[in-house]
What does this fold into?
Amino acid sequence: MTSVEVRPQTVQPTPVPSSQRYRIIWRWHFYAGLFVAPVLLVLAVTGSIYLFKEPFEAWHYADVRTLAAPVTAAKPLSEQVAAARQARPGAAVMSIIPPTAPDRTTRVILQGADTGPFAQGVSVYVDPSTARVVGQIDDGTTFMRVVRTIHGELMAGTIGDRVVEIAACWALILIATGTYLWWSGRRTHKRAKRSGRGRLRRLHTLTGVGAGAAVVFLVLSGLPWSGVWGDGLQRIQDSTGSTTPSADSFPNTSTLSGDLSTNPDAKVPWSAERLPVPQSEGHAAHQTAGGVLQPGALPIERALAAARPVLRDCAPAECDVKVLLPKDAKGVYTIVTDNRRDPAAAQTLHVDQYSGRVLVSYGWAEYGVMAKAVEQGIALHEGRRYGTANLLVMLAACLALITLVVTGAWMWWKRRPRGRAGAPARATNRRSAYGVIAVMAALGLLFPLAGVTMAAVLLLDWLVLRRIPAVARVIG
It folds into this structure.
């Protein structure tokens, strides 16, 4: 008989869930980076530029904002407003910012070419001593305004706003998945060869670990401006009573008209945009042009003087006092202190245009917990809450985000197979896949636009990549 040698079969080890989970999360990290990296790069670059808005504009517009000598005797504000209106005949007055120092001009903001909601005006700067117009600036076309428009909506309106929100939400997913990949593979990375790609990976990892918390804060504090998530937050605030003060809490507000939500120059806190505005009483309506006071209305100086005892202390170097003129015979003077550093010092008053009586005064004490958190988050996000230190931390977060995007794209470019995107291989363990998908679904519920795009990615992965080999080869 011929003996048959039986060789032991090599048994392939079953992939352990942890390695399967690593592969799944790596695949999601890849997809997130592939889709939103360009938008995140634009947001980080424009955000880092916009942090320097105040010093840049103070330098760039010094010729119209600053006078050669301090003013000792100023013309009435009504004369200064009239001079500004003569420079732009027919334009309605949106607001007035009196000088914050003796060597500063008065800023009168008139309606610009765009009359839609949130339209920016044209700032006319007037010498208080002579009521002479020093210069004009279209606020809708300034360099920093363009930067902000790119940062907020990619200059694409509502569609751009949604794209920015999707990218911001996916940035959180990138950080979460990246943190897991670093923690799970930290020992392997320590043993990695000191190659070019290894150095890129270390730079990418160290940047993500070191600045991840700051980037997360940067994203979360910016989301209240977004269309979908921001509106959802506003609804939660309304339902929990943690938002603006209720008009019922104030006297003299039995008759209300309009709000400040569509006035881009009101500069009321984000959480107070929808608070109703009271009406002045006692005079019949007159037909007047925009920005012209009603017969019998108090001069602007007297309205300001009436408000001064109620206004909280505000350092002129950090705070603008802005005056919105009454819209009609029943309108009110709206006076806003816009504190650039401390949201808690901001205040909004409505003053009867005839009697000078302060009808409503509200500020930090009247806001709910969520409204306060949002206001503080916005001030930190813009790098102005704690001066230079705050600005440098936010700048570092923007630079870190730029580094993460660039190094991530560079690593992908070096490792990708020729002619393919080089997506990580799909995991084979369904139980691990379901667990990760459950976590991703929870994130999708918290950030709706991210959830919609997650579903789109899953459909692409399951319905297209698995059924069309040519596409699968390009992606994988």
Q: What stands out?
A: Strands lie at 93-97, 106-110, 122-127, 132-138, 319-324, 332-339, 347-352, 358-363. The longest strand covers residues 332-339.
